[in-house]
Amino acid sequence: MNKWIILTLLLFQAVILFAANTVKINVTAPENIEAGKEFTISFEIYKNNLTGFARLEIFLPVGFRPGKIDAGGATCIIQNDLLKIIWIELPEKPIVTVSVSVTADKRIAGYKELYGNFHYIQNKQRTKVPLEIVPFQVKNDNKQITNEPENKIITGFKPVIPQKNLVQETVYRVQIAAYKKRLGKEIISELYAAPAYVNEENMDGLYKYTIGDFISRDDADIFRQKCGVSGAFVVMYENGIRVIK
Description:
Layout: H1 2-21, E1 24-28, E2 32-34, E3 38-46, E4 54-59, E5 64-70, E6 75-79, E7 82-87, E8 95-104, E9 110-122, E10 125-130, E11 134-139, E12 170-179, H2 185-191, E13 198-203, E14 206-214, H3 217-227, E15 233-238, E16 241-243
Parallel strand pairs: 2-11
Antiparallel strand pairs: 1-3, 3-8, 4-7, 4-9, 5-8, 6-7, 9-10, 9-11, 12-14, 12-15, 13-14, 15-16
């Protein structure tokens, strides 16, 4: 009899522990929107006791452009129709909220879908929680309607790639992040797909991460605008020393 009581208690504790570590994401968005108009998508991440690294990836429908993003200090990266929101360290509160302002292209209409995933690391194991598909019905009273997205190429921009250990007196880099916690290569690759071009510096109590080198400020600024990292900025170095201006 005592054996069954112990087993029941252990099972009950396991159920409580599982519930405490279950991650749930609620998405709130309007079902009907107007082409060319801005609307808001909200995400509530019920993370419970989860800590450490996490990434929310949102695949927007073609022709949907993200605007203002409120993600509580997370790093936001826009890559075409993919929006990545990265926490090196999740906030302590049990529910993390994310708000994204989105505008539907004035040339699209009809049924569209949003989907995504929430990734996190717990006990050195990566876990993916899929988001439920979010449907949209786009109303369009404009005369010109197409299923093609707006031209996303910025006129006059040439493709610019960073160089490693550029030999010249003055070089430029693009800072993409600054954290109190030092990042490993795996996490750095979440911020930029080619971590070999990411430089790490420890300054003012922060680990600062820059991409470069670039020959000119113009080249660095072109890269900054195309890399998709919200809040990225250009930094100048003279003879390997960062110039604060």
